[in-house]
Amino acid sequence: MKKFTPLKLVSLASVSLLIAACGTDGSTDSEDTTMFEQMDYTITGIEPGSGITESARRAFDEYDNLSGWELQESSTGGMMVELQQAIENEEPIIITGWQPHHIFEIYDLKILEDPKQAFGAAENIHTMTRIGLEEDMPDATAILDNFAWEIEDMQQIVLEAQEIPFEEAAQNWYDDNQDLVNEWTDGVPESDGQEIDLVSMPWDTERASASVMTLVLENHGFDVNVTSVDPSILFQALAQGEADATVTPWLPTTHGAFMEEYGDDLVDLGPNLPGAVSGFVVPAYMDIDSIEDLPAND
After folding, report:
1. Concatenated DSSP letters of the chain
2. Sign of the dihedral defined by the CA atoms of residues 58, 63, 68, 74, in that order
3. Per DSSP, what are the bridge partners of residue 71?
C-alpha cells in the first residue's frame, strides 16, 4: 500500500503579519505588490501533463493580467508540502488545486473565481454501468443509482486515510453514516452472493467512493471485486462489458473525451457527487478572490 506523509493541522489564529502583507480594506498597491513579489509571481503546480496543469496553462493564455507569471510544475506531494510550509510560516501562496481534496479539510482555503472559465465549469462525479446490468442485476443497479453524497464526505475519508489504512477510513465513514447508507439500499432485496465487478481509478478520491460502494454492496449480500485502472481502460472495460459498474468518472471535462468515445456503449446513471471544481487555490487569509485580482508582472 502506498504510504502518505500526514499533513498536520496548523493553527491560523495568528495572521496579523500576513494580513499586513496580503492587504486589508485599507491596503495600498505597494503592499499588494510586495505580496506578489514575495511569491516571485509564481503559481505552484503539480505534475506536467496532468489535466489541471493543462488548464492552468490555458488560464495563462486567457488572462492578460497573468503576464509575467510562471507556473512551477512539481508533483502533487511537492505542492502539498509547499502549501503546508507557507501556511505554517504565514506566507502567501497560490497553488493549482481541486475539490474534493482532503487539504480542504485541513486548511481554510478558497478557489479563486475564474470568470473566463479557463478551468472549465464545475464537474460532477458520475455512476456508470455496462449495458445490460439493469436486466442482469436490478438490485445492484438500484443501489448504484441511489448512491449520492457530498464533497465533505469524500474528503473526510481521504483525510483520515493519511493516518490509517484506506479500508479502515472507509469503514469508519460507513459506520458513522448509516442513515445515508440506508437511503441507498431502502427497499432493495438483499443478494445471495451475486458477483459484481467494479472498476475505479488510482486516485485517493476515487478509492474513497469505490471503497464505500464496496462496503454498501457487500453488506447487502453481494460479492464485490474492485479493479483500479487508468481512465481509458475503465471506459473501455465498461463499454466492452468486461466490468459491471463504476462510481468514479468526472464529467463533463476531465473524462469528457472518453465519454465521447465510449458513451454510446455504456449507461450513465448520472451524478453521485456534484460540484467538483479545480482552479487556482489560496489560503483564505489572502485578500484576493478572483484570478482577475492578480496583477501582471510588468
Report:
1. -----PPPP---S--HHHHHHH--TT--HHHHHHHHHHTTTEEE---TTSHHHHHHHHHHHH-GGGTT-EEE---HHHHHHHHHHHHHTT----EEEEES-THHHHS-EEEPB-TT-TT-S-EEEEEEEETTHHHH-HHHHHHHHH----HHHHHHHHHHTTTS-HHHHHHHHHHHTHHHHHHHHTTPPPPSS-EEEEEE-SSHHHHHHHHHHHHHHHTTT-EEEEEE--HHHHHHHHHTTSS-EES--EETTTTHHHHHHHGGGEEEEEEEEEEEEEEEEEETTSS--BGGGSPP--
2. negative
3. 43
The structure's pTM equals: 0.78
Pairing of strands 223-228, 195-200: parallel
Rounded to whole angstroms, how far apart are CA atoms 241 and 117?
36
- pLDDT (tens digit, 9 = 90+) per residue, 51-105? 788 899 999 999 999 999 999 998 888 999 999 999 999 999 999 998 999 899 8
In angstroms, rounded to a whole number, what is the distance separating the alpha carbons of residues 293 and 102?
Answer: 26
| 242 pLDDT more than 90 | yes
Instruction: For strands 266-283 and 95-99, give the pairing.
Output: antiparallel
| Neighbour tally for 258: CB within 10 Å | 20
Phi-psi region of 68 (alpha: psi -120 to 50; beta: other; left: phi over 0): left
How is residue 289 written as a grid cell? Answer: 478572490
pLDDT for the residue 8: 36
Neighbouring residues of 49: CB distance < 8 A, sequence distance ≥ 6: none
Name residues whose C-beta falls within 8 Å of residue 263's C-beta, 6 or more positions apart in sequence: none
Count Cβ neighbours within 10 Å for each residue of 34-50 and write b for 16 or more, e otherwise: bbbeebebebbbbeeee
Please give the Cα distance from 199 to 179 (Å, whole number): 26
CB atoms within 10 A of CB 134: 16
